[in-house]
Design goal:
The protein is an alpha+beta fold and 363 residues long. The chain has six helices and 18 strands. A hairpin with a 2-residue loop joins β6 and β7. The longest helix has 13 residues. The chain starts with 14 loop residues before the first helix and ends with a strand.
Length: 363
Amino acid sequence: MNLAPQVTAEERPPFGILLRQHRIAAGLTQSDLAERANLSVRGISDLERNARKAPHPQTVRQLATALGLTDDESTMLVTARRVTEPSRVIDDTPTAVSDSDTKRMRIPKLACAAAGLLVMLGVAGMAGLLVLHAIPPVAASSAATPSPSVAVNGPLILSDSFAEPTSGVFPHQQAGSTRAVFSDGGSSAYQWDVGYAYSALVAHVLGPYPANPDNAWLAGNIGLDRQLPRDFAVQVRARTTRSLDVSAYGLALQFGPDQEYQFDIAPNDQRFRLTQIEPQAPLATDRSGWILMDSHINVMRMEVHDNTLRVLVNHHELANLQPPMLASRQGGTLSLRWAMTGQPSDRNQVEVRFADLQVYALP
């Protein structure tokens, strides 16, 4: 997630602040994280406040797995554990994911109306480190709203944490070759693969990226071999872990052979696009400050209900539309998508990791 630049041990954020930053970036409450890591909510709260001694190494490993951290991020968390001493750490990170978290905040607020930002300022206990966080505004758009959107879920139809291939809802290992055709008549084949690893569904598109006039997105996808009801919502956590500047990922919903909707985001420039396939037609495209950049986790959600298609990122609505064909659909299915949008810089490949897929029936 690249939450901090390379710093000395004295300047490194305390364990509690780093843990809290990772949790909020993952869109989790303390209760959510406690359940996934098999720990108590009180234990998570104490760790984030540095109210207890440095946690046991096994506890740190459980937390890293529950948060879906990369090897580098896990190492940073372990290192922070080693230098953390019990102290009173100011609760300085803004979040809307937990009412109890909000009640504990003891940081003065500064509303910056001109910039559309709510800035939280505070001084962390170690080395006089000034910590500043800002909640970004949604880009001005008729398709976006700056306030959190309430997700109304019905019964949980299926879920996959991607932690165990034998109980997963997708095939364990897939690989393939796809040929992209460009507007100038040229074409190029590229390779992709996907499989369960590191408590995630890890997907790649392999370079090199071909020269083409379209700046094409070269995508891979994996589909769910299961029919879903007419009205449902799908939610998944995703992030890029290699070649961040030329990566994209998303969801696709398909209703029969002639109706498919693709929702993709490119975190590097905070862009999203919602496209109808067959016929090919862009439904919405814009930039949104609610899309987290770099390797931060983004929570993506698509909903279909009656004649409405709704897409959200990190619990904020980006588009709410009524495509003409949607009302005539029957049951559907879903796919996960990932794409290379330019020449990859890391090992000649793009890598995207998905976690915590959930599908709900909508009332």
